[in-house]
Amino acid sequence: MINNDVLRSVRYMLDLSDALVIETIQRVDAQ
């Protein structure tokens, strides 16, 4: 599994919206 697959799996397990995932990634990248 590559990182993208892991992130996608977690996203669907937690039922996260696209907007929330994008916002979270932007916050992590900013640091």
Characterization of the model:
There is one protein chain. With 31 residues, the chain is mainly α. It has one domain (1-31). 81% of the residues lie in helices and 0% in strands. It has 2 helices and no strands. The model has no long low-confidence stretch (mean pLDDT 81).
Number of domains: 1
Q: What's the number of helices?
A: 2
Molecular shape = flat
Counting DSSP E segments of at least 2 residues, the number of strands comes to 0
| Biggest sheet record | none
Summary tags:
31 residues, mainly alpha, 2 helices, 81% helix
Blueprint (SSEs and pairs):
Blueprint: H1 3-14, H2 18-30
What would you say about this model in short?
By secondary structure, the protein is mostly helical. The chain has two helices and no strands.
